[in-house]
Amino acid sequence: MKISEFNERLKNSLLMADGAMGSMLHEAVGAQRCFDELNATHPEDVFRVHQAYIEAGAQIIETNTFGANRFKLAPLGLAGEAARFNSRGVKIAREARESAAREVLIAGSIGPLGLGVQARHPAPEEIREVFREQVQALEERGVDLFCLETFSNLDELLLAIDAIRSFSSLPVIAQLTYSEEGTTHGDIRPREAARRLQAKDVQVVGANCTLGPQTLLPILQELASVEGLLVSGMPNAGFPKREGGRIVYPKSSPEYFAQFARDAAAAGVSILGGCCGTTPAHIRAMADAVKSLRPAAHASVAAAAPSSALPALVKQRDPESKLWKKLHAGEFAISVEIDPPKGLALERIFEQVDKVMAAGRVDVIDVNSGAMARVGMDALMVSGAIEARGIETVPHLTTRDYNLIGLQAMLLGAWTVGGVRNILAVTGDPPSVGDYPESSGVYEVDSIGLVSVLKRLNQGQDWAGKTLGGATNFTIGVALNPVADDIDHEIERFHAKIEAGAHFAMTQPLFDPEHWHGFLKRFGGKPPIPVMVGIWPLNSYKQALRLNNEVPGIVIPEGVLKSLESAGVNARERGFAAAREMLAWARTELAGAYLIPPFKRYEEILEIL
Q1: CA 248, CA 522: separation in Å to the nearest integer?
Q2: Rounded to two decimals, what is the model's pTM?
Q3: How many domains does the chain have?
């Protein structure tokens, strides 16, 4: 379809799009790993959904390809199926159109890549290429236009538009999803989003998903107030809830959607439809309500829209923790690592930590988090209790156990209530290695993503761009394994952690200075951030043998193993002497060290100091 033809249609009529595809397919075939895959495995069910919406009055149907991009399909092992799923999706939609009694337009549905804050985002050109692959498959099979929907990141939406316009001249509907406050990611208002999208060759700018009809309406009114803008609106049935393993949407009545359609048309909306939880009944009610209406002329928003200017980020500043000040001054810092208790009592932890700190040779206590995926008291909570005793801590925070919302909630509480000023960001051991192998890890972000989140909190915003009414100032630590099996990958991730905003690093335990020297040679010189080396005093030859063979990331040189074996009953003395030698070496080449007490006997660490 030519853009001029599409514009002409919208000039004189209000077009009705379809409703939810995913929730309808869920009702038909149950939960699936990927609804786009149904284009190949259950085409008749996809066909019936299209047919039902056409019969309800939809003049535009969207292909079942919302998540059919290489990036989203890759974790499922389906990256190579992207073109096939898109091609099949268009074929099914065309078959549904051919069975219709009237003309129906087919919109190629394209959703975001689901980038989140993983590792590092792909480069813009790589993002464009992923979208381009999907767009080409959709256009080659015969879509009439494209519908970009449910994007929360405006920059990603702009890249998707660039991918389309790199070769296609079909019409484009570009839709963002907004919060209840009327902003999208980065605290961007609809008017600001519209201004940036108008600079691109898109025909319609809209909003869909997340919100129900009445909450979406003010956003559509703000969009419609922008001169020269054609607007689309596709609300959810309302706010979902979880029942068992299902996401259930409220039973919004068709009459409720009919009133929304009349209000949206009065505001100047040109394309109406539905998103999650909506059904053919909702579309029929809206179609009937507006069949004799035309989009109103551009309305003026009754009250001035809030400023679209982004809230200012706090300027980069040095962390305020004592640990950072010492590292930054070039003074050697020492930490002792502790494990949180497995039960309810903290008294022994307090007693041992007090004894270690009383020696005056330790600067901070770093608190492990769910090592080997075993249940223990939360590291942030334990750190808060220790901080209340006047002792600085470095809690480890794993991304295994919390999603992005939970991680930020925990960090805000740790800063404000717990007094925590340092964080070691780690991805965490998978549940399969611990006491709950049947449990699922969250891993919504990895350690690199967590560093990015921490940096944003330090700038006074959460990851969605909402202002915090202040800013944290965490010292951000990251893990580093100089003896990783794939050292090139480890170096790549280390660079990514530094780029994301890490202030310092803590290595896996090392047992030979040459391991560090080998890493520096591969890395290409001294790291740009301070590094604290892990030192683990070994108690016996058997312990060393087990660590070397069974614990990931631990490499004990053959010479150390033979030395412990030959020492016999004196192996502990030899192991502790080696730890003292490592500490003496570290003082000459590294920024600090963290010591791992043998068998949680924290007072024994004083023998190393």
Answers
A1: 52
A2: 0.77
A3: 2
